From TrEMBL:
The lineage of its organism: Bacteria, Bacillati, Actinomycetota, Actinomycetes, Bifidobacteriales. One of its GO terms (cellular component) is cytosol. One of its GO terms (biological process) is regulation of nitrogen utilization. It comes from Alloscardovia theropitheci. Belongs to the P(II) protein family. This is P-II family nitrogen regulator. InterPro entries: N-reg_PII (IPR002187), N-reg_PII-like_a/b (IPR011322), N-reg_PII/ATP_PRibTrfase_C (IPR015867), N-reg_PII_CS (IPR017918). Gene3D superfamilies: 3.30.70.120. The modification O-UMP-tyrosine is found at Y51. It comes from the Bacteria. Keywords: Phosphoprotein.
Length: 112
């Protein structure tokens, strides 16, 4: 099993969620995140005054899946989140040693 974590632009939330539903992702966690990458934020002008926005809003997806679905899910996330501009996000995959469903006590793939 693997944990797929993706950080994407907030305006791509619905596109990514829809793409994941198409490939049969049954469960995921979505949370708000803030941060920056290479772009280090941006500058905005409000009423003639410049403001440096260093920390940008992002959305974080977390999905635990079986090994065979990893490439498909990562590709769907990338396709749906891509705008071609800096700050589109990142996706990473890490191994999951164990998982247990709290309600039933099931473990491993049955807990997904």
């Amino acid at each position: 099993m693997k944990l797929i974590t993706a950080i994407i632009q907030p305006d791509k939330l619905d596109d990514v969620a829809d793409a994941l539903a198409q490939v049969g992702v049954h469960g995921l966690t979505i949370s708000e995140a803030n941060g920056y990458g290479r772009q280090r934020g941006h500058t905005e002008v409000f009423r003639g005054t410049k403001y440096d926005i260093d920390i940008l809003p992002k959305v974080r997806f977390e999905i635990v899946c079986e090994d065979g679905l990893v490439e498909t899910i990562v590709q769907k996330i990338c396709d749906a989140a891509k705008t071609g501009t800096i700050g589109d996000g990142k996706v990473w995959v890490i191994p999951v040693e164990s998982i247990t469903r709290v309600r039933t006590g099931e473990t491993g793939a049955q807990a997904l």
